[in-house]
Design brief:
Distance between the termini: 21 Å
Order of helices and strands: HHHHHHHHHH
Structural class: mainly alpha
Strand content: under 5%
Radius of gyration: 15 Å
Largest sheet: none
Shape: globular
Number of helices: 10
Number of strands: 0
Length: about 160
């Protein structure tokens, strides 16, 4: 995923390193020793903020990646997430989300449709992740299209 983010350097300019770092760290909240709420964007961002004293913008990117507000809503954590971590600038969040939605769990390159299908297949229809991805899919697809247009225009 970090390679996908690095490939966006022509679009991101000076913010490229920040987005690449957030790509490396975006799923840190899955680490069993960091689980607090069970919601990996929030758990990871809290760890980065409270323990590592990481840059505020980096923490916000981790907290809000890939439709996190919708999943936080499904978990009853929306106010907590939004209250603790401000939304990062849209171009940076879009780049991180694009990188996540075009990279499979094994690091392979995927289309957004393949990635969304992979997530939905991994989580059953009764799972809140499945519901959140279903709800956020139109916006997630739009984010990928937006970043693809930015890349095309930057060439």
């Amino acid at each position: 995923m970090a390679d996908q983010a690095a490939a966006l350097s022509t679009v991101l300019g000076a913010d490229s390193e920040l987005v690449v770092a957030s790509a490396w760290l975006h799923d840190i909240g899955y680490s069993p020793s960091l689980v607090s709420t069970g919601f990996h964007p929030l758990d990871g961002a809290r760890y980065l903020r409270d323990v590592e004293r990481a840059d505020e913008l980096l923490c916000s990117l981790v907290a809000h990646h890939t439709g996190a507000l919708v999943e936080a809503d499904e978990r009853g954590l929306r106010d907590e997430l939004a209250g603790e971590f401000a939304l990062p600038p849209e171009p940076l969040l879009d780049a991180l989300t694009y990188s996540d939605l075009t990279t499979g769990p094994d690091g392979s390159r995927l289309t957004v449709e393949e990635r969304l299908s992979e997530i939905l297949d991994r989580y059953g229809p009764d799972d809140l992740v499945h519901r959140a991805i279903t709800r956020s899919s139109p916006a997630l697809r739009g984010t990928v299209r937006t970043v693809e247009k930015r890349r095309a225009n930057a060439r």
